[in-house]
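Troubleshooting log. The previous run stalled partway through. Resubmitting the same two chains, unchanged.
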Amino acid sequence: MKEDSIERWVKKAIRGNVDAYGALVELYKTYLYKTAWLYVRNEDLALDVVQESILKGFRQIKTLREEKYFKTWMTRILINTAKDMLNWQKPLVQLEKIQETALQTQNRVEEKIDLCDAIGKLSEQYQSVVILKYFNDMKLSEIAEILQIPEGSVSAYLFRAKQELRSILKEGYLYE
Amino acid sequence: MSKWMEKIPVSESLDQVVENSLNQLKFEQKRQRRRRWAVAGSATAAAFAVAVVFFGTHPALAAKLPFVGHLFEQVEEDVSYSGKYSEKAESLISEEEAEQLSHGKEADSSYVQTSNGVTVTISEVYCNQYALYLAMQIYSEEGFPEDFNGRNMENKNYGYDTIGYYNETSYGDNLFGVSTEPIEGYFEDEHTFIGIYRDDLQRVIDERTDEFVPIPESFTYKLTFYDFWGDSEGGGEFKTLKPDGTELSCVDEERKHYQGEWHFEMDIHQDNSQTQIIDVEQVGDAGVGIKEVVKTPYEVTANLIVPEGQTSDDYMLVICDADGDILPYQGDSTFLYNIYQRNTDKVYVFVCDFHEYLSELKGYRWKGDYEEKKKEKTFAEYLSEHALASAEVTFK
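Second attempt completed without errors. Output:
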């Protein structure tokens, strides 16, 4: 879908058109789910995050000032929802992760599992910049907008995050 | 999408979750629409029947005629915060002025302001400690475009029309407001909009501290509008593609502004005569509780007791009517509930964990099968099993 078409859907959604909003959700649902999964690393929780974000997004859509930033704005809602849900579910998630890890140990050949586990060990702000930069291919300016921090901080977080990741993963893994 | 992102498997349930979420949004919207149209239809039908015949032959007089002095009566059921404001409102226009205006004559009233061909009349006011309501008429000499803010849309999303605005408000020294919700109402004809402006008095800021503060019981209210606006479908037709690749015809929109300056000033005294405050003082095991429950003629809310270091925003306040069903939110606030046409002689008040309510508990009410489920267990009964604190309160 072209950018200008997306903006027209966003305009209609802002005016209360659920179908237009639904079209946007359809467009971004995979992206939203995968981003949510990277935060919570649990299928059911990721689905909960997506559901809650879709509902919040429509109810708050009048606060979106510029149509072209819909995806950025929606990502911010999703990340905040994921963080909230993760804090709330923390004890439960930790228990489930122990069980999952036990099951996955035999099949840990895929690099994504290693990387996701490594990202999970980073502090919260580092996790966000790494997910948005390396998984969602976002520009520094977009990440800064989503996380509401200066671009310089994004660069700094990325630098520090990569240093930490290097000590967890093989040297050069993030520079492919 | 990066190669790592591509490797993350997508849940087979994603489509179902998306569909459920969109269905819930549609359900909420339909429910709002049904409620509003149901009450609007009967009350305004008679007035329309008379007005349409007369306006049909005297369009120029139409804006000045209709219901000045009785605007609340005409529109109070056509807004999202319905209520019988007409029974308690104070008229700002004298009977003599109303009579003059009703005959299309000019009236010397500070509550009728004209700027750049747009006349704004504030006819009545009602104020309590939570909100100030103004009954307004906005008359445009050139007329509002046929598609202004979708006023002739067959499929209205909310069951009422709106006009956006930019304004400034003050409530005495150092106190100013941040009202942004559109004026709600309906277009009486192509020149005339009748609506209610709701000013949320819980969002008054003291500029010295930048904090929300309660307003005094009596104050001078200054209100200046600088712009009224709405979207029109002025950008022409265009074709676009749905995500599934099929083509769809759309109409582009552009924003139309009516700029000028319309200044109003009025002395306000809160009417809290029918406000009932019931002390509850119940605290649950989690240290959160209900201090008191407050009911005004139009809304009900509660003040919470929260553990040190937390605020009420960390929790979800839910209020159900005597039948055990959740009340609608009043305006934009999730702490104020509208009571119009609901039995609130008794209410059930719950304080829930914010995340638990949003991610789990509310689903009991908003999934499509509630009508069946409530025969076994109402929403209030369900919440009583999960809330951090609850109270059953009976009003006089």
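Takeaways: The helical segments of chain B are 3-7, 14-57, 71-75, 95-102, 354-366, 370-376, 379-384. Residues 170 and 176 of chain B are 4 Å apart (CA to CA).
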